[in-house]
Amino acid sequence: MKLIIAIVQDQDAPSLVEELTENEFRVTKLASTGGFLKSGNTTLLMGVENESVEKVLDIIEHTCKTREITTSLLSVTMPGDTYIPYPLDVKVGGATIFILDVEKYIRL
Ligand code: 2BA
């Protein structure tokens, strides 16, 4: 068995969870925050049988979209701790995925 951890954009999470559950995969949704943009994203935990990993990756791939966003980061550039915002274009991926081996899976 594998544990798939997928970090996706909040906009894609509802349709992804719906499609996963329709396909009878179990999923846990966590609210998370990206370290770089410091904005919300969604982390999904999915325990799946080895032979289902590709199916889950397919579902993620066609549900989650890469987006180019313009954000503003703050920098201290002036005396007196004045913050100057500057725009930054960032391409946020459709999903960041980790696949881990599961030693044991227990449901009580
Ligand atoms: P954030 O950390 O908020 O990053 C959002 C996007 O900003 C990233 O998209 C990437 O395009 C850019 N970015 C991140 N760190 C950067 C840096 N040090 N310098 C320049 N640009 C940077 P993605 O790579 O698609 O990542 C989307 C979200 O997935 C990330 O949100 C983070 O929450 C998570 N993530 C990505 N890689 C990860 C990793 N190796 N470990 C843990 N979480 C990761």
Annotation keywords:
108 residues, two-stranded antiparallel sheet, 6 strands, binds ligand 2BA
Polypeptide structure, described:
With 108 residues, the chain is an alpha+beta fold. It is 19% helix and 48% strand. It has helices at residues 13-22, 53-63, and strands spanning 2-8, 28-33, 40-48, 67-78, 82-92, 95-101. It has a four-stranded antiparallel sheet with strand order 2-3-1-6, with helices on one face. A two-stranded antiparallel sheet has the order 4-5. A hairpin with a 3-residue loop joins strand 4 and strand 5. Helix 1 packs antiparallel against helix 2 (53-63). It is elongated, with a radius of gyration of 18 Å. The mean pLDDT is 92. The protein binds ligand 2BA. Ligand 2BA is lined by residues 7, 34-37, 41, 90-93, 96.
Strand content bin: over 45%
Helical coverage, percent range: 10-25%
* Count of strand segments: 6
Q: Could you tell me the radius of gyration in angstroms?
A: 18 Å
Unreliable stretches (pLDDT < 50, length at least 5) are: none
Structural class: alpha+beta
User: Total number of helical segments?
Assistant: 2
